[in-house]
Amino acid sequence: MDVQSLKFSNSNNIVINGVTSINSQMLHIVINRCHTNGIHVQMSTGVTILNFKMSTGDEYVSIVPQTANLWIEDVAFGPGHSISIGSLRKDSEEESVQNVTVKMAIFTGSQNEVRIKSWARPSTRLVRDILFQHAVMVNVENPIMIDQNYSPDNKDCPGQESGVKISAVIYQDIYGTSATPVAVKFDCNSKFPCTSI
Q1: pLDDT by residue (tens digit) across 86-107?
Q2: Is pLDDT above 70 for 70?
Q3: Which helix (H) or strand (E) holds 60?
Q4: Residues known to be catalytic
Q5: The whole model's pTM is what?
Q6: How far is CA 9 from CA 32, 36, 48, 80, 150, in A?
Q7: Rounded distance between C-alpha atoms, residue 15 and residue 13, angstroms
Q8: What residues does each domain of the chain span?
């Protein structure tokens, strides 16, 4: 495992100000090419992210297995990709994600803004008690998305369905403009459908 607390590679004009990184066991600010996640939350409980602005080559915040009680508020993102729960069930032993709140967010010129994605593979895990509230989308692609059949390039999951159970997801007071014809896409599977959305 590549464990690094702070690393920059082939980068220009980087400013890091007022950041404290404690107990980093994986990632915590790694910028090495344009396909970069900003903040990666994994195996964590009680994380709070406040008053934050970011542009990235990939996801602003990736929320992955064994994350609970995550609070994100007063954030501005773009360009880049989403606040993403997942991808989940890429590996067989992954734990669930629950009790995530994202409030007062602005997304500008970016993709897949508030997204939940799970690989099309069997699982007993779940995603539940998720709140996306008071968000503004400015010319973004795929503003709201749930993808229970995630399989990049249709590899690794032929003929399978996601067993990750997605429930109790609230989208409240989200508005703005979509750069794609479909602004809200819920691709849930028939065997374990999304519930209480």
Answers
A1: 887 666 566 789 999 999 999 9
A2: yes
A3: none
A4: 58, 81
A5: 0.80
A6: 4, 11, 27, 19, 30
A7: 7
A8: 1-33, 37-187
Query: What confidence tens digit (pLDDT) does each residue in 107-152 have?
Result: 998 888 899 988 777 777 889 999 999 999 999 999 999 988 877 6
CATH code given to domain 37-187: 2.160.20.10
- C-alpha count within 13 angstroms, C-beta hemisphere, residue 56: 26
* DSSP per-residue codes, 64-132: -SSEEEEEEEEEEE-SS--EEEEEESSSTT---EEEEEEEEEEEES-B--EEEEEESS----EEEEEEE
Angle at 121 between CA 150 and CA 172, to 5 degrees: 50
Q: Which two tokens stand for residue 144?
A: 């709201």
d(CA 163, CA 59): 24
Residue 9: burial class (beta carbons within 10 Å; 0-12, 13-18, 19+)? exposed
Q: Give 185's strand partners.
A: 145
For residue 76, pLDDT beyond 80 = yes
CA distances from 181 to 161, 173, 177, 185 (A): 26, 20, 10, 11
Among residues 79, 145, 87, 136, the alpha carbon closest in space to that of 112 is found at 145
> Can you tell me which residue has the tokens 């992954």?
94
